[in-house]
Design a protein that fits this description.
Shape: globular
Number of helices: 4
Order of helices and strands: HHHHEEEEEEEE
Distance between the termini: 32 Å
Length: 164
């Protein structure tokens, strides 16, 4: 398993590339939107498949968000961390249209992302307004340890405090 920063670095290794590898991996035809397949591919190839939709290959954002809402903690944009999963609803109709990874929060109104199937069909880094965010979900990545200290990235736990 890779940490969130390692997985984000892997995702960014595809910047400027098209979607054929992601479509093929998830069994999609040429020309099919592949943003969800890009996210799936990154989780699977980083040995983190179990952290995203139970390890299933996802290709449709409305199905993905339903699974994530059951499996993962949803976080507000101001708490977004690298490699959180972000879904967007451009039409404001409650149905997500697009998915990607958070790179960082820019401000209370904007986040930096890495997404597949954007900028004319390539993997690209974007700056997105949080008003278009339908949900941000935090996978339980393995913690990153350095010299006996826990780095900021990784699994934050989400375990309730006993007795509360």
């Amino acid at each position: 398993m890779k940490s969130n920063t390692e997985q984000l670095k892997f995702a960014q290794s595809f910047l400027g590339k098209g979607g054929s590898i992601f479509r093929k991996y998830c069994g999609l035809g040429n020309g099919t939107a592949y943003c969800d397949a890009f996210v799936t591919y990154c989780f699977h190839k980083c040995d983190n498949a179990s952290l995203f939709c139970g390890g299933k290959k996802q290709t449709y954002c409305p199905t993905t968000i339903k699974i994530l809402q059951k499996e993962l903690a949803q976080v507000p944009p101001y708490l977004a961390m690298p490699c959180d999963i972000v879904l967007f609803d451009w039409d404001k109709n409650g149905v997500p249209n697009h998915i990607g990874f958070v790179r960082a929060k820019k401000s209370t109104s904007e986040i930096y992302t890495t997404e597949g199937n954007t900028n004319g069909g390539i993997v690209a880094n974007k700056t997105r307004n949080v008003k278009n965010v339908q949900g941000i979900f935090r996978p339980h990545f393995k913690p990153t340890y350095k010299l006996g200290k826990l780095a900021v990235d990784g699994d934050c736990g989400y375990n309730p405090i006993a007795g509360l």
